[in-house]
Amino acid sequence: MMHTLLESDLRFGVIYSDPATGTAEVGCVGEIVKHERLADDRFFLICKGQERFRVAKVVRTKPYLVAGVRWLEDRPSGEEDVEALASEVEAYMKDVIRLSNRLNGKPEKKEAQDLRRNLFPTPFSFFVGSTFEGAPREQQALLELEDTAARLKREKETLRNTLNYLTAASAVKDVFPSA
């Protein structure tokens, strides 16, 4: 597969799969932005996620899965103020980062981080989902949502729960510093 990719446009589909839930129908395009061939003919890759797709038809399964896909775009969020939601999510992210750093003994940064980096709400919502490392099923659920407001609301709830957990852990650490 790598040899084919290196001879083409460096883009490939990524689909979540696990033994419990099987193979997802929604995935995203990954683009290789940097690669290094290792001595044993494996590769070290840095990839960037791009547009989403839904598998329409599996064309073949060997030597790797090839499928026809339908591209996905978010539907309009209706009356929702997605800018306000994105700002709330950013605020929760900043609090989660601040408390995580505190619990891990990292110095607190005084300057406010611009986590949105001028991103519109939709790409920002995908960035937020990409930070939920260690929670692949949640990342997949977020990827499958076709409404930016719904995705931001779910991320806000996840971040709020994480913040509650970190706040409790911080309080325990304050009371029992050696714990």
From TrEMBL:
PROSITE patterns: LON_N
This protein's record includes keyword Coiled coil: yes
Lon N-terminal domain span: 1-163
Organism: Linum tenue
Protein name, as recorded: Lon N-terminal domain-containing protein
Keyword vocabulary terms for this entry: Coiled coil
Gene3D superfamilies membership: 1.20.58.1480, LON domain-like
Coiled coil: 135-169
Pfam families assigned to the protein according to its UniProt record, in alphabetical order: LON_substr_bdg
Cited InterPro entries: Lon_prtase_N (IPR003111), Lon_prtase_N_sf (IPR046336), PUA-like_sf (IPR015947)
Entry annotated with the keyword Metal-binding: no
